[in-house]
Amino acid sequence: MNMCITRSIRFLRLAGGFAAAALLSAPLLSTPAAAGPNDAVYMYKAADRDQKLIEAAKKEGSLTLYTSLATNESMPLTSAFEKKYGVKVVLWRTTSDKVVQRAISEGQAGRHIADVMETNGPEMEMMARERLLSEFYSPHLADFPPAAFGPKRLWVSDRVAFFVVAFNTNKFKRSDIPTTYEGFLDPKWKGQLSIESTDSEWMAATIKKWGNDKGMKYFQSLAAMRPDMRMGHVLLAQMVAAGDAPVALTAYNANAESLKMRGAPIDWVPVQPVIGRPQGIGVAANAPHPNAALLFADFVLSQEGQKMFADMGRVPANPKVKTPLNDFPYVMSEASIVLDESAKWDKLWQSLFFTK
Asked: Do strands 228-230 and 193-196 pair parallel, antiparallel, or not at all (unpaired)?
C-alpha cells in the first residue's frame, strides 16, 4: 500500500492488531466507565485543589506527553510549563495515527507510560473508547463551550484546525484565489492543486454542508482534476512554502500561519465552506504521574496556555482568547461522527482520488 493509506486503514495496521475496523463503526460505549485509579486526583474540587496539585506534581517530578503538535510549538509550550512549575515534560511528538498506535499498544500490554495525550479529536475519541482516558476536573473548563468536550467528557478540545486553501505567494496573489472551492474546477488550476491524502473528513463535512447531490458532483469533478495527494499537513504546508505544491486545498491554517510568521512565502484564504476539526487533550486513566498530568492539562487549558497557542499561530479552543485565525464563517466536524462514519467516507475518498 502506498502513501494514500487513509485514516481507518492506518489505524488497523498500526495499532498492533486491535479491532480498529469494528471500533470505527461502533456506537458510543453505553456502559458507565469503571472507576479509574487516578479519579481521586483528577476529580478533586476542594478549595485547596491548586495548592495540593502543584505540590504533588513537583514531588512526582515529571510527566510524559504524547502529542502530534509540531515540535516548534510543542517544545515552547512544554518549556513554559517546566519553567513555571519545575516539573519536567518528557515529550514524544509524532503523527496522530502513531500517537493512537503507541497508546493502544501500550494499553493492551499493561504498560502505563503516557500521562497526557494531545492530538486530533477523532483520535482522542478513539483512545477514549478504548478506555485509555479519564474524565478530569479543571477550573478552566468553565471557559469552554459544550461542543468542546468529547461525548463522555474524557477529553476536551484545546485547539482547532481549520481546513483552508494555502498558496505560494511567489506564484499567486491573494486575489487569484477563488472564494469558493468550486472555483478550483476551472481548467487553469489543473496541475496546481494538492490535497492532504487522508482528508476524507473534509470531503464528508463539505458534502453534508452542500447536500449529497451538489457535494458528490463537486468531488467527482475535483477528482478529475487529478490533484497531487500528499501525506501530512505539516509537510503539505512546507511544500507550498517551497513552491513544490503551489496551492493546497486542505492545509491547516495554523501550519500555514506558522510558516508565514517566520517569513516563508505562503499565505492562506478561508475558502468557503471552511471546515473546522477539534484537536484535544486528555489525561491517561492509568497515568504514572497523575498530578503532573492534571497540572499540565490545567496549564494548556488556562488562558495563559491558550494565549500561547494564539501567539504561535494556532487557534485556541477557548473563545475568551481572541484570535483572527477563526474570524470567518465555519462548520465544525464532530469527532465521534467522524469516527463512526470513517469507513464509509474513506472508501469513497479512495475510489475518487486513488483509483486510476
From this structure: parallel
SS3 162: strand
DSSP 3-state helix, strand, coil percentages of the chain (rounded to 5)? 50, 20, 35
The torsion angles phi and psi of 248, rounded to 5 degrees, stand at -110, 125
Whether 92 and 64 have beta carbons less than 8 Å apart is answered as yes
Q: What is the pLDDT of residues 12-44, one digit of tens each?
A: 433 333 333 333 333 333 334 456 899 999 999
- The separation between the first and the last C-alpha atoms of the chain, rounded to the nearest angstrom, is 15
Query: How far apart are alpha carbons 309 and 229 in whole angstroms?
Result: 28
Q: What Å distances lie between residue 56 and 51, 116, 294, CA to CA?
A: 9, 16, 11
**Contact 177/271 with Cβ under 8 angstroms?**
yes
Q: Cβ(20)–Cβ(5) under 8 Å?
A: no
Note the pLDDT of residue 12. Answer: 40
Q: Which residue has the cell 475510489?
A: 351
Enter the C-alpha cell of residue 38: 487516578
Q: Are the C-beta atoms of residues 247 and 193 closer than 8 Å to each other?
A: yes
Is 6's pLDDT higher than 50?
no
Q: Whose CA is closest to 323, among 261, 266, 265?
A: 261
Residue 283's nearest CA partner among 268, 294, 272 is 294
Distance CA 67, CA 240 (A): 24
Q: What is the DSSP string of 78-105?
A: HHHHHHHH--EEEEEE--HHHHHHHHHH
The C-alpha cell at 255 is 501550519
Per-residue model confidence as pLDDT tens digits over 60-90: 999 999 999 988 899 999 999 999 999 999 9
Please report the pLDDT score of residue 9 as a whole number: 38
262-311: pLDDT as tens digits:
999 999 999 999 999 999 999 999 999 999 999 999 999 999 999 999 99
Whole-angstrom Cα distance, residue 179 to residue 159? 25
Q: List, in sequence order, every residue forming a beta bridge with 267; answer none if it has no partner.
A: 167
Q: Residue-wise over 49-86: b if at least 16 C-beta within 10 A, else e?
A: beeebbebbeebeebbbbbbbbeebbeebbeebeeebe
Is residue 278 classed as helix, strand or coil in its secondary structure? strand
